[in-house]
Amino acid sequence: MSSQSVEAPPTAVKPPILEIRGLTKVHRTARHELTVLRDIHLTLDAGDTLAVTGPSGSGKTTLLGLCAGLDDATAGSMKLDGHALEHLSQDARAALRNKLVGFVFQSFQLIPTLTAVENVLVPLELRGEVGRQKDAEALLREVGLGDRLDHYPTQLSGGEQQRVALARAFIHRPKILFADEPTGNLDAATSEPIVEMLLRLNRESGTALVLVTHDPGLAAKARRVIKMSGGTVIAEAQNAV
Ligand SMILES: Nc1ncnc2c1ncn2[C@@H]1O[C@H](COP(=O)(O)OP(=O)(O)OP(=O)(O)O)[C@@H](O)[C@H]1O
Questions:
Q1: Is any atom of ligand 1 closer than 6 Å to the C-beta of 65?
Q2: Ligand 1 centroid distance, CA of 56 (Å)
Q3: Which residues pair with 224 in a beta bridge?
Q4: Fewest Cβ atoms closer than 10 Å to its Cβ: which of 35, 59, 115, 210?
Q5: What keywords would UniProt list here (predicted)?
Q6: How far apart are CA 180 and CA 61, in angstroms?
Q7: How much distance in Å is there from the Cα of 64 to the middle of ligand 1?
């Protein structure tokens, strides 16, 4: 009998979905220099949920924008799913984000000349995926817009536009979804299914969620909560969810 021990195969350790080191953002004008984010460090595990809270002007939207690649940092580094963004070309960064990231903006950013269904299909078209009309329609039904499929953004209320934006952010099943005030424009009855949908996406697809919110009820549904003030993270807590 062999005395060789059988070594367990190495377990694949998933990289954090998001790793931020020393992230800083300074806005410079001719006369002023304004540091809106200062030396932020943050690590988020794959599939985790994080609420970003803090008073108006504390830097929450700026942080989200940098994470989602909508803006460039003044200093610091970021990894998405183990990929160091500073080592990638602009095109490679865009492709990585297009694959991994979903984003819901505070101001929806729907394309005015496209219908609700066509707006939801945009992330797929950017990836060259066609023929997913039925999936887009199903998602819109899930957010309660089954009878608004062919409406244009101007024909939708603010809350309805918000829901189209959420469906658009979900359609390619991102690994991480950034949402800036996802229920900010919705009443309690409308926001509940949206929150449920976000949490279901997290549970069933393992999509990590980063939610900027002023709503303590929504923040309580995230496993981790950070509080920002003056461009820095001043407190961090964990919820038993
Ligand atoms: N392009 C810009 N140029 C100069 N200052 C900016 C610019 N964009 C944002 N700021 C400033 O950065 C600070 C942080 O703004 P940010 O939108 O990130 O705050 P926030 O915490 O998301 O606020 P709110 O809860 O009101 O949405 C604010 O003081 C804002 O005035």
A1: no
A2: 8
A3: 50, 238
A4: 35
A5: ATP-binding, Nucleotide-binding, Transport
A6: 7
A7: 11
**Every domain of the chain and the residues it spans:** 47-71+101-238
Question: Would you write out the chain's pLDDT as a tens digit for each of its 241 residues?
Answer: 445 555 655 666 789 999 999 999 999 988 899 999 999 999 999 999 999 999 999 999 999 999 888 888 999 999 999 999 888 888 898 888 888 999 888 777 899 999 999 999 998 888 888 888 999 999 999 888 999 999 999 999 888 898 899 899 989 889 999 999 888 877 888 788 788 888 988 998 899 999 999 999 899 999 999 999 999 999 999 998 8
Helices 158-170 and 133-142 pack at an angle, to 10 degrees, of 130
59 in ligand 1 pocket by Cβ < 6 Å? yes
What is the CATH number assigned to the segment(s) 47-71+101-238?
Answer: 3.40.50.300
CA 130 – ligand 1 centroid, Å: 37
How far apart (Å, rounded) are the C-alpha atoms in residues 152 and 83? 37
Question: Rounded distance, CA 197 to CA 213, Å?
Answer: 16
Minimum CA distance residue for ligand 1 atom 7: 27
DSSP state of 154: G
